Amino acid sequence: MVAFVVVVGASAVAPTGGGTAAGGRTPSSSTAVTVRGVLEEVVIDRADGAHSRYAVRGTDGSWWLDGLPEPTPASGSTVAVTGAPSAGNTLRVATIRVTAPPTGELTAAARARSTKVLLLRVYWGSRPPANPTAATAKRKAITRPRAWFREVSHGRYTVSGAVTPWLRVPRPADCVNDAFKVSDQALAAARRAGIRLGRYGRFMYYLPCNAGGLLGFGSHPGNQVWLFNTLDLQVLVHEQGHNLGLHHASARRCTSRAWETVTWSSSCQIDEYGDEIDTMGNRRPGHYSAFAKSRLGWLQRATTVTATRTLDLAPYETTGPGIKAIKLRAGRSTYWLEYRTRRGTDRAMPAGTDGVQIRVPGPEGRTQVLDAGPGSTVDYYDSADVHLPAGSSWTTPEKVRITVTRQTASVATVAIRFGAGAAKVPNAPGVVRAQAGVNAARVTWTRPADNGAIVRGYRITRSDGATRTVTSFAGTGTGYTWTGLDPARTYRFSVRALNEAGASAAVTTGVVRPLVDTPSASITSPAQGATVAGVVPIRFTAAPNASTKVPIFYAEVNVDGVPLDIDFAAPWGPFQWDTRRDVPNGNHTITLTVSDQSGRTTTVSRTVKVANPARTVTITAPADGATVGPGDVAVTYQLAPATWDWQWVDLLVDDFPDGTALPGTALSFFAGGYEPGTTHTLRVRAVDAGFQSYLSAPIEVTISD
What mean pLDDT is predicted for residues 625-646? Predict the structure, then answer.
């Protein structure tokens, strides 16, 4: 979560000093001082939670306060504080006396039509940073917020202003603790530069420093904003919202025993920044809420409802005709309804989250968005989608039922019914059917009325007692495929709708039997366990399923997982398996796969034993020990088995190749090429189609004189 520091109750008066006593002297830690000014509460939000600090701002300086007595005076009170200075521009409070109560939460600027803003870029050290340039700073800090405020206020409010040159100030010891001191020094530097501060109604300070993960804070209400190394639009308009008197946009997160999240319960927590749509939350620069706009005077046409009515809401972001908000008063409670769409600055809303949102005012003017559509998670955040979907309803604790009956791009129709009573279990699902599938059944139904509490899902019970619970946002998902069923059995299914009040009555389907619609396939030869040799024909059958009659697409045979052959049209096979080609003797698996044109397949297999005879090569002439020569000598041989897939034969003389021939053709040995009286070894090598080599026994011959 992006962290902010929020100054609550700050004075709109620009200070002239920075942590000094009257006369501009910095007192020693042993000297008690009295500071008169406005008391401010500072809410600092960090990853480990939020905590508050207080400050007092006077015309002669600004101090953080430690050790305030209880009860703490109200923020915005004018006080006189006596205490001892300590490190970090801090006073340890001895006494505090209220001299005047707060003057009101909203400043005059909050109702103004425009504010002139001065962005003061400050730095320390030998030279200013290269970025942001004056042009970039003006575009991001003045121009973009001006367009944002014009849209969000519907033309009722805008900002303008200027950017200072880089203003050099002493290096702060701590960006956060010295923020008041830096702002006072920046204003003084601006005066020295000839800038007429009286022309401006708001001051924003850009500090090029790391504030421990904090991006900014702003006086509330007031006229000052501190920015820590950022000009992000969401930070800028968030902090200026504090200047205008707006508090954080929070979320009410509720749970119950039966559900992880619900819209309202007795077990709720308030997430300070949890409204992920409103820019006063902590994620997107979306429109201020209707409650906030009503306080600022920016809200267009709104209607207060105190009795049963049905109303059309126009998209909240648009300017023009139509009701833009409903203020629902139910007893002592108030609910604000807006139809938020992904338009304008609200375009950062996640896709699919357009809809009617409900907010309630919380303590100190904070709003709390309700998760009217619990269970819808977007980007891992349940509260990113909080709208009440069309066709769904929510019943307030005061028994007022809010139902969105219709939602289009241009209108959302909301029915509000007083005296509706507590939410009840949903109606039973309508038109429940079951359709047979492949080893499965598809169960469908129509969405029932939720009776005041959004449908969270459905419970499906099979006739043998097995149960499935299907999550369905607002009950819009109305189908479930139950797989893994036995085609030899029949089934019935009953469906109940679920909401926070409980389960509806069950509606049961008719009887359904799952389909077996794979094609038929069988291997007819060779037989299971058969012994085979040589070229083996593999015969098989392939036929469409008897019930679906979907045509066959292909039939494929593989051996030991290696494809042998495939047919895409009848007649199917036979395929010839030549076991002579690199197939060792022993067991092998033949697999047949048949697929129809719907993609359903059947696979069958069997094991056979290959037992091919041994392969031998024998030299028949000349005889072993013969004297040959002196010319060409025919070398004859015998290959066994003769029908084997022989490819060629080689003559090896003294183990070196000396001629090649086709199988069955005599080889020639030229004895005249060797010294008379010498003895040489002859061998014949035969090679088959699998490139396996087989050698004859060696014979010796002597070359004649």
Answer: 92
